[in-house]
Amino acid sequence: PKTLRDLADARHIHIGAAVNLDALQHDHDYSRVLSDEFNAVTPETAMKFDALQPQPGDYTFQQADAFVNYAHQHGMVPRGHTLVWYSALPPWLQNGSYSRDQLMYILKDYITKVVTHYKGQINVWDVVNEAVDDDTGQLSDSIWLRGIGPDYIDMAFRWAHEANPQAQLFYNDYGTEWSSKKFDGVYSLLQGLIQRGVPINGVGMQMHMHTQFYPDNATVLQNMQRFADLGLKIDITEMDVLTSETKVDMPTTLKIQADIYGTVVKDCLQIKVCQSIVFWGFTDRYTWVHSDLHRDSDQPLIFDKDYRHKPAYDAIVQALKTP
Ligand code: G3I
């Protein structure tokens, strides 16, 4: 039978998943289903600052290289996630105190070394991740904002572009599928970058959603269209649909979850510049929601913990088959 990957290839879009490297290296079912069903992959943690530069000046690319090699061996497109974020920073950086010049040097050195290391292998980067505050729409606090100032974002994109002029450079965030100060803040950040001639090609809409409260679809489409009207590509970068807040029985919850997954895939197919949909994992056996949110019973993804298709998988198949 056709896999998601076959259906996506026929539509010339990427359908992908965030990859848990530990599972990839130890769970054969995981790596088999991943390469059967997806044509794009994002490292869940292997390319974050704390993984690539655990000690000052000591770049540790081995694990991330294994991820890129897996992608290459299976004809999958790897995404670079993520160069500049307030989280996943090594202690020497998080707890150190640096002058503005020192911090600019650290960030420029990091972006240049990492993007150069993967030049020719990774052609799309989440350059800056989650830099806008959910409630105010202003730039959110981070060592980068405090230590360098608001133009750290412009600098990051320019340094990434200098290192690899061919790479597609994205700003990535969550919560931009609602009418909210968050959307307005991200929108005006992107508008400013474009107005200043900063090299940015697209915006990642993470799409971390819940069965109990999800936006009306008209808003999702309108927000996608507004980003598209800025001249940006739109990637769905981290979709999952959490179930632990559910107020109804599980079969009904999984049906609601399927409707959300199917709707967002259809939305992306409707917007010409949306050509990539990545789920934040693919099997309920491995999800950040259990480890990071401590919601062990949540079933946010499209395969169950035994790699069986869930209703969400079937809804995505239907959406990919819809002309
Ligand atoms: O590798 C260490 C291990 O050595 C240690 O024993 C263990 C216990 O402390 O921690 C392990 O590191 C964990 C890492 O995942 C690898 O498993 C970190 O604690 C944990 O915080 C980290 O969580 C990841 C988180 O980003 C922070 O990097 C999640 O798996 C990952 O799903 C999550 O992904 C983010 C996206 O990058 C950005 N958008 C939101 C999304 C969900 O938070």
UniProtKB/TrEMBL annotation:
EC number: 3.2.1.8
Official protein name in the record: Beta-xylanase
Keyword Signal included in the entry's annotation: yes
UniProt-listed GO biological process terms: xylan catabolic process
Top-level lineage group: Bacteria
Species of origin: Dictyobacter vulcani
Any Pfam family hit: Glyco_hydro_10
Similarity-based family: Belongs to the glycosyl hydrolase 10 (cellulase F) family.
Keyword Signal: yes
InterPro entries assigned to the protein according to its UniProt record, in alphabetical order: GH, GH10, GH10_dom
Segments forming a coiled coil: none
The organism's taxonomic lineage, starting at the top: Bacteria, Bacillati, Chloroflexota, Ktedonobacteria, Ktedonobacterales
Reactions performed catalytically: Endohydrolysis of (1->4)-beta-D-xylosidic linkages in xylans
Enzyme type, top EC level: hydrolase
Molecular-function annotations in GO: endo-1,4-beta-xylanase activity
SUPFAM superfamilies: (Trans)glycosidases (SSF51445)
GH10 domain ranges (all copies): 1-319
Keyword field: Carbohydrate metabolism, Glycosidase, Hydrolase, Polysaccharide degradation, Signal, Xylan degradation
